[in-house]
Write a structure and sequence with these properties.
By secondary structure, the chain is of the alpha+beta class. About 30% of the residues lie in helices and about 25% in strands. It has 5 helices and 7 strands. Strands 2-4-5-7-6 form a 5-stranded mixed beta barrel. The N and C termini lie far apart (about 110 Å).
């Protein structure tokens, strides 16, 4: 009489279960899963930090940018100031100065300024320091409430017409 040995993990018709063909987990070992999780968490934390710091400081005024010039280095940031009366074109660049709180900054803008750009108006520029000059890649004209007060007729076509009378 033949004796069959069937123990745990074996069956008479099949190879032992849990043998050499064991499936690996999707990300491998627990260590790999932990490292992957830490990398994802660090990336999300970095993005969150950058987003919050950029949102809290929308721009620096000209005097703040000059005072923090060493810390800012050549990093891109936004600067705000009022355009002075020295605007001129040098090839494709626009050169001018801005001021805020008695501090003046020389600007070289690597683009044509927007249509509303002119002396004595506030602007926000995006760019970086290059030596003593701020190199601007973007010029944004700041609008104030005085525009609508000075030109109320330009805003009327955008307002819905009002009806008077007829049961109201």
């Amino acid at each position: 009489m033949a004796v069959s040995t069937v123990g745990p993990g074996t069956s008479p018709d099949r190879a032992p279960v849990g043998g050499p063909h064991r499936r690996r987990p999707w990300l491998g070992s627990r260590r790999r899963q932990l490292v992957a999780g830490l990398i994802v968490a660090a990336a999300l934390g970095g993005l969150l930090y950058e987003g919050l710091t950029n949102a809290t400081v929308y721009f620096k005024t000209a005097d703040q940018a000059v005072a923090e010039k060493a810390q800012l280095g050549t990093r891109t940031f936004r600067i705000e100031g009022t355009v002075m009366d020295d605007v001129h074109q040098v090839g494709p660049d626009t050169e001018f100065s801005i001021y805020a709180n008695q501090v003046t900054v020389d600007i070289v803008a690597q683009q044509q300024p927007p249509q509303l750009f002119q002396p004595d108006i506030p602007v926000v520029l995006e760019g970086h320091w290059q030596g003593a000059v701020y190199i601007a890649s973007t010029i944004m004209v700041k609008h104030s409430a005085s525009y609508s007060e000075a030109h109320p007729d330009r805003l009327k076509p955008q307002l819905p017409p009002t009806t008077v009378g007829a049961g109201h």
